[in-house]
Amino acid sequence: MQQVRKQLVHEIVAEEVKQYIRMKQLKKGDKLPSIGELALKFSVSRTSIREAMRHLEAIHFVEIVNGKGILVKDADSHQIQTRIQIENEKTFLLQLCDVRRGLEGRAVELAARNATEDQLNRMEANLKIYEQLRILNEDTAKADLLFHQTLYEASHNQVLCKMIDSVYDSFHEFWQKPFGIKRIFEDTYHLHEELFLYVKEGNDSKARQTVEKLIDVVESSIKKLF
């Protein structure tokens, strides 16, 4: 039987918040209502609002600042949004892997040519945090996300970065918590380390080959899951 993915509450709320920002014509730096006010406005729990805000923050749509609240961050940018309905989730995920091969492969090639010293330092720092959390068997998702965001930023191609962000925006739940399972993919830290070293060396072809190996692992895990 084919499985149909249900849209999660916080995903629905995130879309509603986006619409609210556009309807109110809010700009970068404008403040959103509080968590409590948003919960009342959208008739959902505070937990759902917090999850929606974390999601929107991860894709740079809002920014949560201590002492200031929730601020609009990037609502004016041209974002490529996708809404694809595919009933067979295995097909959905495997097709997404093909998209990732193209987008992320090109991004790391450019990063190997264009990464600045600051970007390399940030990638290395996030990689160290990733490794420490992995050893402690703690959640590595945020460190992994920051590593990849800096890596794609280093491509210095904003359109490409936005396309990758759009893929993450639409389908990130599959990578983080598919079907309530926190981790389904095999450990890929060694490949992240390898990828960083090739980018640092400026070896664009090897960097792209490492992305291919990373996605091979993801594909293998998807096939095992189903």
UniProtKB/TrEMBL annotation:
<protein>
    <submittedName>
        <fullName>FadR family transcriptional regulator</fullName>
    </submittedName>
</protein>
<dbReference type="InterPro" id="IPR011711">
    <property type="entry name" value="GntR_C"/>
</dbReference>
<keyword id="KW-0804">Transcription</keyword>
<dbReference type="GO" id="GO:0003677">
    <property type="term" value="F:DNA binding"/>
</dbReference>
<keyword id="KW-0805">Transcription regulation</keyword>
<dbReference type="InterPro" id="IPR008920">
    <property type="entry name" value="TF_FadR/GntR_C"/>
</dbReference>
<dbReference type="InterPro" id="IPR036388">
    <property type="entry name" value="WH-like_DNA-bd_sf"/>
</dbReference>
<dbReference type="Pfam" id="PF07729">
    <property type="entry name" value="FCD"/>
</dbReference>
<dbReference type="InterPro" id="IPR036390">
    <property type="entry name" value="WH_DNA-bd_sf"/>
</dbReference>
<dbReference type="GO" id="GO:0003700">
    <property type="term" value="F:DNA-binding transcription factor activity"/>
</dbReference>
<dbReference type="Pfam" id="PF00392">
    <property type="entry name" value="GntR"/>
</dbReference>
<dbReference type="InterPro" id="IPR000524">
    <property type="entry name" value="Tscrpt_reg_HTH_GntR"/>
</dbReference>
<feature type="domain" description="HTH gntR-type">
    <location>
        <begin position="7"/>
        <end position="75"/>
    </location>
</feature>
<keyword id="KW-0238">DNA-binding</keyword>
